[in-house]
Predict the structure.
Amino acid sequence: MVTVTTGEAAGAGLTVVAALCVALVLWWEVERRRGLRRLRGVLALATPGPPGGTVVRGRGAPWAAALRDWGRVREHRAWLCLPVAVVVSVLGASPLPLLLGAVAVPLLRRRLRTAALRREKEVRAGRVVDLCAVAAGELRAGWQPVRALEFAARQSGALGDHEASVLAAARFGGDVPEALRGAARADGAGGLAGLAACWQVAVDGGAGLAAGLDRLEGALRDHHEQRERLRSELAGAWATVAVLAVLPAAGLALGTALGADPLRVLLHTPAGLACLAVGGALEAAGLWWAARIVRGGERP
């Protein structure tokens, strides 16, 4: 016969209430984001156009906007910590996993945001390489530098938010090298500084712009490919870090399968709480140190 004490019943009740509160917060967040997505889709169908009226986009415009926003949506995967924490809290009859899950959400969001920024940096660097290659090809085909730069910028998207200012400077006789240097300040767009130097030398000294862009494109492409090879070689090390991160959860699952009830020991006994605190600190320190070693290998 199993006897349930008043304290255990109260703890279970608090856990259920906390789980319901977290579920309501998640439901409200999902509904809010769904409404925002609908609003973006409606606004994407009609955008301000020339002074004559509006430009009506096709049905594919909302899907294109959704694909562009996919990088931001991925950052919100950190909220998955809360459902996992709710399940562990209910299984362990303790509100402690909920608190740990709430603490893990901002930390994981910061980590995902940093990874997204790193991916954007790499994508932008690849676009700069494409910009140099397309511009050099159009120059060899006989196009004027301004038209070649305009076509290459629109094809590659390497200039980003600075595209309007750079193209305006190119069309109306502005300082194109200075505009390119301003665009080169973005993360991953450092190759645009080389493009600015090539443009300035070609304008001031009459040197061939296409030859300079060819050499610049080759150097940037070699650097980009070297980074890709290094990242592929370090994929095994990152896999090892991921396995180390999953091992404690695998140990808990194995203990539960063997009938040891590790959640009760960890969450309801002084020795278990002490082991949980020490083990969590050692796990965090080990993951941080391993990730630091691997990132050190990724640096040029």
Observations:
- The radius of gyration is 27 Å.
- The CA atoms of residues 72 and 116 lie 8 Å apart.
